[in-house]
Amino acid sequence: MELLAVVALLEDAPADGLQCGQVGTVVEKLDEGVFEVEFSDDQGQTYASAALREDQLIRLRYEPPSEAA
Q1: Is 38 among the domain residues?
Q2: Please, which residues bridge with residue 39 across strands?
Q3: What is the total count of domains within the chain?
Q4: Residue 69 placed within a domain
Q5: For residues 7 and 20, what is the distance between their CA atoms, to the nearest angstrom?
Q6: Residue 41 within a domain
Q7: What is the pLDDT of residue 66?
Q8: 3-class secondary-structure state, position 26
Q9: Residue 51: which CATH number?
């Protein structure tokens, strides 16, 4: 998982006020497999920031897969 990757939450995180499916951006790697993810509204205002494990996230992709050479 790289910095600035767009991710979606795979499970509820009630302690952080987050629900499964919410979309955020990886802003920092905190430890092996743990990332700080920032969640923002449509106007770009951050409404939550949480330390989440990689297994709680799925990376979203907006481009087709590249062809293996």
Answers
A1: yes
A2: 48
A3: 1
A4: no
A5: 11
A6: yes
A7: 79
A8: strand
A9: 2.30.30
| Cα dist from 19 to 23, 41, 69, whole Å | 10, 14, 39
Rounded to whole angstroms, the Cα distance separating 69 from 66 reads 9
For residue 26, is it within any domain?
Answer: yes
- 17: number of Cβ within 10 Å: 12
Give pTM, 2 decimals: 0.88
Residue range(s) defining the domain that contains residue 11: 6-59
Which pLDDT score, from 0 to 100, does residue 54 have?
Answer: 97
- Going residue by residue through the chain (69 aa), what tens digit of pLDDT does each one get? 899 999 999 999 999 999 999 999 999 999 999 999 999 999 999 999 999 999 999 999 988 887 755
The tokens describing 49, both together, are 């920031």
